[in-house]
């Protein structure tokens, strides 16, 4: 690594730490902690204060994080508050990114940031559709990617890989019908032996042999 790149990395780290300290001074009760992770600033925020923090990041002239890059959900089933909502913002004028995190559960809604970033509408709908995360104040909180009548939230860690229902087009009824998932065969325990060495059980169809 050259001296120029080292100085650039150190300058970026100093700038991110400066932003974290500035946020903590401006909204001390809203910021739980901040740290540098994967080259970006991560800020942990109280769920109730997410709108105030996002607004400050966008409108403060020292910050100007005017671009909403993404909002996504993360599931940690072992936690009391199993979900994290993660916001990624970009400041084009400072060429820096910031990552904001809030924690919640299945019942406590996260305040919607659509009043600050109109583009958050679809991101929050996706988090609701995939994880079941609720957003209070959202103008149109409904599923976005799954089909009508879909059961469950497919990106939760406890969602079965087979799903709960399957759909098909019924020729007689001339419409799409939903049915409980039916596995074509039971899950089998494989011994993973080489096929040249043979298995420890008789494969179906090999009884005569």
Keywords:
alpha/beta; Beta Polymerase, domain 2
Write a structural description.
- The chain has 209 residues and is an alpha/beta fold.
- It has a domain at 3-143: NADH:ubiquinone oxidoreductase Nqo5 subunit (Beta Polymerase, domain 2), CATH 3.30.460.80.
- The protein is built from three helices and nine strands.
- The strands form three sheets. The protein has a five-stranded mixed β-sheet. A two-stranded parallel ribbon has the order 6-7. Strands 8-9 form a two-stranded antiparallel sheet.
- The longest helix is centred in the N-terminal third of the chain and has 24 residues, at 3-26.
- What summary fits the major beta sheet? 5 strands, mixed
CATH H-level superfamily of the domain at 3-143: NADH:ubiquinone oxidoreductase Nqo5 subunit
- State the end-to-end distance: 65 Å
CATH architecture of the domain at 3-143: 2-Layer Sandwich
Strand order of the largest sheet: 1-2-5-4-3
Mean pLDDT: 87
The structural class is alpha/beta
Give the strand tally: 9
CATH topology category name of the domain at 3-143:
Beta Polymerase, domain 2
Low-confidence sequence ranges: none
Shape: elongated
Strand content: 25-35%
Topology as a string of helices (H) and strands (E): HEEHEEEEHEEE
What oligomeric state do these chains adopt?
single chain
Calculate Rg over CA atoms. 24 Å
Helical coverage, percent range = 10-25%
CATH class label of the domain at 3-143 = Alpha Beta
Number of helices: 3
Give the arrangement of secondary structure elements:
Layout: H1 3-26, E1 31-37, E2 40-45, H2 50-59, E3 67-75, E4 83-91, E5 96-104, E6 110-111, H3 120-131, E7 135-136, E8 165-170, E9 175-180
Parallel strand pairs: 2-5, 6-7
Antiparallel strand pairs: 1-2, 3-4, 4-5, 8-9
